[in-house]
Design goal:
alpha+beta; Alpha-Beta Plaits; 2 domains; six-stranded antiparallel sheet; four-stranded antiparallel sheet; elongated
Length: 321
């Protein structure tokens, strides 16, 4: 049996999955109607919407199967999310990757499998819409098109969920998304005894940009600022816009000193942006950097409030107030 490899973006993929807030939730008609339709269209005994968590595959919708999850290491869907198109196994008993897999040798006795990866709004693969049969079978190009169409419908439902946690202007996490993902990130750091640091950022004197250049230019500047944050912090760092001109970055496995270096790097990048000819204005910011302390910060909100207060103290000192 071959255990599925890990996607290259596994850390970020799991963050996106957690932000959807779907794991271990109850049945939802919007997903159940898709698995009912899939069973009817393809004439298979089992159709699933499967989400690939850190160590398991969990079924958000299961039509024709009693169990709610299986270990990820034996999952077919764990293999499917490594590709961009349908992952198909015509007869698992003849495939050396799966012939001795417990899901093949025992219940649900998988022989045929076809799974189409489901992407969230940010493009990361959350799981699959998959079909299972107890007998080997072929899969035509018409079948493939139909499965892709059904998967696209499932992706639309995922996108609707994810958009509730994304800032519409900057396409980074909003406050709701940050609170969800931040809770998960801090719990991981707490369990693994890793450091974590929060950077709270507030733009200085941003209102005159809107007043002088218009709100369209102000929106463009905010989106540009967010893109610069993403480019200069690590891909594993959680970047969010939590207010009009307020941003936060949660750095997992990073000390206070390392976060300070990252802020300096970002400040240099922003200074370079400000030197762009013809801009007409400069962007500046104040920041508060706080190391996570499990004894002092019982929640993400505690960390956020301390970062906010520190940022305003730093802003007052800089402006002599």
């Amino acid at each position: 049996m071959k255990t599925p490899d890990m996607p290259e973006d596994e850390s970020q993929r799991l963050q996106t999955l957690q932000s959807l807030h779907l794991l271990d939730t109850g049945p939802e008609e919007r997903f159940d109607r898709l698995t009912r339709l899939a069973r009817r269209v393809f004439g298979v005994p089992v159709a699933l919407v499967s989400l690939i968590d850190e160590n398991r595959q969990w079924f958000k919708s299961r039509n024709g199967l009693d169990i709610t999850e299986t270990p990820r290491r034996i999952s077919f869907c764990g293999h499917a999310i490594l590709g961009d198109d349908i992952f198909m196994v015509p007869d698992a008993t003849l495939d050396e990757r799966f012939a001795d897999n417990p899901l093949v040798t025992g219940p649900p006795h998988v022989r045929f499998y076809a799974g189409m990866p489901l992407r969230a709004f940010d493009g990361r693969k959350m799981g699959t819409l998959c079909l299972i049969d107890h007998a080997p079978r072929s899969f035509t190009e018409d079948d493939a098109r139909a499965l892709r169409d059904l998967a696209a419908m499932a992706e639309q439902e995922l996108a609707a969920i994810q958009l509730a946690t994304l800032d519409e202007l900057t396409r980074i996490s909003n406050r709701r998304g940050f609170m969800m993902l931040g809770r998960y990130s801090l719990e991981v750091c707490r369990r693994q005894q890793l450091p974590a640091t929060l950077v709270f950022i507030d733009l200085d004197n941003f209102k005159p940009v809107n007043d002088r250049f218009g709100h369209a230019e102000g929106d463009r500047a905010l989106a540009e600022f967010a893109r610069l944050l993403q480019a200069n912090f690590r891909a594993s760092d959680l970047v969010a816009r939590i207010g009009g001109d307020e941003f936060v970055i949660l750095l997992s496995d990073a000390t206070l000193e390392q976060a300070g270096i990252a802020v300096e790097k970002f400040s240099d990048a922003l200074a370079q942006l400000n030197r762009t000819p013809g801009r007409g204005y400069e962007l500046a910011f104040s920041s508060g950097v706080v190391a996570f302390d499990a004894g002092r910060h019982a929640s993400v909100d505690d960390l956020l409030q301390e970062g906010d207060a520190l940022m305003y103290r730093m802003k007052a000192q800089r402006h002599g107030r």
